[in-house]
Write a structure and sequence with these properties.
The complex is a heterodimer of chains A (about 80) and B (about 160). With about 80 residues, chain A is mainly alpha-helical. Chain A contains 4 helices and no strands. Chain A is about 70% helix and about 0% strand. In chain B, about 45% of the residues are buried. Chain B is globular, with a radius of gyration of 15 Å. The two termini of chain B are about 20 Å apart. In chain B, strand 1 and strand 2 form a beta hairpin. Chain B contains 8 helices and 5 strands, in the order ββααβααβααβαα. In chain B, helix 1 crosses helix 2, helix 2 crosses helix 8 and helix 5 packs across helix 6. Chains A and B meet through helix 3 and helix 4 of A and helix 1, helix 2, helix 3, helix 4 and helix 6 of B.
Chain lengths: ~80, ~160
């Protein structure tokens, strides 16, 4: 892995270290993740964990049809907008 | 939007409609969740770039909270937070909103539907959607169709 020397304001570095500590990761790992996010990519393991977490939250809430749910929501908003 | 993938190759950009993002997290009673989630896998592999628009957060939160699922506020907040971690959210430009308004008129769509199509078009991306009106207007493709197309392109 390449090593780089970068300049950062002291306050920002303190913020980075505080956030990295809170997440239990190293400063380097935190900065790598931030850079990947800024470019627009995501780590595959992070994506899988995010999907699993979301599915666990909604599990047991019952059946629904995504297309119909979203379409109905947009129709209702559209109807409200027209009445204004 | 053609982003640079894992090997420095350009990859297909996909903008996801809320209906597809909903299936990332919800399973019961849904059809085609595998394809919606395969888009996330392809994004993780850097085979596509994936994004939603800023509106998606509000729409997803609203349908989970006030739609059939009747989730609690805490559950809806958690899902919206997870969505924010999944992929970037595009804020449509004024030009894209003007284009969306024209698309809405031409295809008799809500402006909400049309905004997704306008953003995808303006950025040279594909729109992944399960919305019948967008699909009928030829402005988006089902995730299953996109996944097949992307895999064929990848050889």
């Amino acid at each position: 892995m390449a090593k780089v020397l970068i300049s950062l304001p002291e306050e920002l570095l303190a913020d980075i270290d505080r956030e990295a500590d809170a997440r239990g990761v190293s400063r380097s790992a935190f900065l790598r993740r931030a850079a990947v996010h800024e470019i627009g990519w995501r780590d595959p393991e992070e994506l899988a964990a995010t999907l699993a977490a979301g599915q666990a939250i909604l599990a047991g809430l019952g059946p629904a049809d995504a297309a119909e749910e979203v379409a109905r929501d947009r129709r209702e908003r559209d109807a409200r907008d027209r009445r204004r | 939007m053609r982003a640079t993938g894992a090997n420095g190759m350009h990859v297909i950009g996909v903008v996801s409609d809320t209906s597809v993002a909903y299936q990332w997290f919800h399973t019961e009673g849904e059809t085609g969740v595998e394809a919606s989630r395969a888009l996330v896998k392809l994004f993780g592999d850097r085979s596509i770039s994936l994004s939603v628009i800023d509106l998606t957060r509000y729409e997803l939160g609203n349908v989970i909270l006030r739609g059939r699922l009747q989730a609690t506020a805490e559950q809806a907040i958690a899902i919206v937070d997870l969505l924010a971690q999944m992929c970037p959210a595009i804020t449509p430009t004024a030009t894209e909103l003007r284009h969306a308004t024209r698309l809405a008129e031409t295809h008799r769509l809500t402006l909400y539907d049309a905004t997704y199509a306008a953003v995808a078009r303006a950025r040279g991306s594909e729109l992944a959607t399960l919305d019948k009106a967008l699909l009928k207007a030829g402005l988006g493709r089902r995730p299953s169709e996109l996944v097949e197309m992307i895999r064929l392109e990848a050889g």
